[in-house]
Design goal:
four-stranded mixed sheet; alpha+beta
Length: about 250
């Protein structure tokens, strides 16, 4: 059977063949052929695609051709960044704190370059607008609580963790991956905390259904934190995501 050539494939190829190719984002509704089209393109680029079997070469390529090009050239050339060294350190620190809640003040205290909280917030907004990092706010989504709460940082591309912060443990990486997948879905994503009780994610889908989601390495019972949140908000549905059911994530939050 003759393979169907999707319209955007030729456009994507032309962009990747440019002298200095930029990171490309393929965005659209579900089930329209995004994955198929990208697969058609990658088969034509054996040099780069073959790196998938050579982790050191892939990491070097990812850092030099994508991270440096997008983060430290494209963004800096299109936006006003007065402290490039601070911006770079912030990116590395955000990767190290993947899927963790961290205050702006604590971020600032761990950076070597001098700055202030407003600069940190501005730089995080730049990264969010570039679809690279997403700061999650606290649930429930009330403006007063959001402004005072510390954001939970999710890298939109999990490969950023491997490239910039390989010391991050497997559990945090898996949680960050699930968070990134939820962000890509049609809905809103938060985290929840009250005292020592904390739930990894609270996802509200486009239908208004709310799911309190905890990420575990293996199947487990409802935690005390999930039970606490459900007592406060009975309409919220509990959900535990592990390595066995993560492939069904879209269906589980529908």
């Amino acid at each position: 059977m003759k393979e169907l050539k999707l319209p955007f494939v030729s456009i994507l190829k032309s962009h990747l063949n440019e002298k200095t190719p930029l990171m490309q984002f393929v965005i659209g509704p579900r089930q329209v052929g995004k994955t198929t089209g990208v697969g058609q393109v990658t088969r034509k680029y054996p040099g780069r695609y073959s790196f998938r079997d050579d982790p050191p070469c892939w990491k070097s390529y990812f850092l030099n051709s994508i991270v440096d090009a997008v983060l430290f050239k494209d963004i800096l050339s299109q936006h006003k960044v007065n402290k490039p060294a601070l911006f770079r350190q912030l990116v590395e620190l955000l990767a190290a704190y993947s899927a963790q809640k961290i205050s702006y003040t604590k971020l600032l205290g761990q950076l070597q370059e001098r700055g202030n909280v407003e600069i940190i917030k501005n730089y995080i907004q730049l990264l969010q607008g570039s679809f690279l990092f997403m700061p999650l706010e606290k649930y429930p989504p009330k403006k007063v609580l959001q402004k005072s709460s510390s954001p939970k940082n999710i890298p939109m591309c999990p490969a950023l963790i491997e490239a910039l912060a390989p010391e991050v443990d497997k559990g945090r990486r898996f949680e960050a991956y699930v968070g990134a997948e939820l962000i890509h879905l049609n809905g809103e994503l938060f985290y929840w905390q009250e005292g020592h009780f904390e739930v990894d994610f609270v996802f509200k889908n486009f239908q208004g259904k709310v799911f309190a989601t905890e990420v575990k390495s293996e199947k487990s019972k409802l935690s005390a934190s999930l039970q606490k949140l459900m007592e406060k908000s009975p309409q919220i549905r509990p959900l535990i995501i592990d390595e066995k059911n993560v492939s069904k994530l879209v269906d589980l939050v529908s």
